[in-house]
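Worked example

This section walks through a single chain of length 221. The input is the sequence exactly as stored; nothing has been trimmed or padded.
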Amino acid sequence: MAAENAMIEGRRKHLKKDTTSIQRVDFGAGSQGASQTVSDIARRSLKRTKHAAALGNLAQSMQAEHILELGTSLGLTTAYLATGAHAVTTCEGDPAIAKLAREQWNTLGLTNIAISEGPFAETIPVLIEEWRAKNHPGFDLIFIDGHHIGSALIAYVKELKPWLRPRGVLVCDDIHWSSDMEQAWGQLIEDAHWTQAVDFYEWGMLTANPDLTKEIRSIRL
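Given that input, the structure is written out below as C-alpha cells.
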C-alpha cells in the first residue's frame, strides 16, 4: 500500500506543477466556463493527502468490493479508493477534468475504475437503471464529494441509500463547508435508518450496520 500511495503522491506533485490551461464547463450557466490551469485546479480541488489516504485505508480495511464516488476531480482520491477495492465507479460532471483523471489512472496502472461523465442529475438515474438491469450487488462504500449544496446532498443520500450494502458506509464530504451543508448533515444524522454517524469534520460517515447500536460522535483526524 505504501508504494501505491507514493506513486499517487507523485501524481499530485506533477499536477501542482502543470501550467497547462484547460476550458472548464459551467453547468450552472449551461456553457463553457473560465479557462484554468491544471495547477490551479489541483491546488484548489485535490483532497489533502492524509484524508485521501484515510479513505483508501477505510476501503482496504472493509475489504470493499464495490465503491461509488460522486465527484472525481483529478482522480487522486479515486486512485486511493481503487487501491483498496475490487471496482470503483466514479462520476464527474466536467469532461475536461474526467480526461485528466483518466490520464492519472493510466499512469498509475489502475484498471478497476469506471467513470461516468455528465451532471449527477443526469448520470445517476442512468447508472441506477444499469445496476438494476445487471442485478448489481450494491456498494460497500459510497463517497459523495461534489455539488456542495445541502438540499443536493440530502437528495443524493436518499437516492443512493438503497444501493448501500447492509454493512456498508456512506461518506459525505465537506459537511462543514457552509452552514447549509452543516444543516443538511444535521438532518441526515437524525434519520433513524442510520445506526452510526461519525463527524470527522472533513467529512461525515453514516452506516446502517445492524450489528451496531445507535450512536452519533465526532472524531478529529
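What to look for: The chain has one domain: 47-218.
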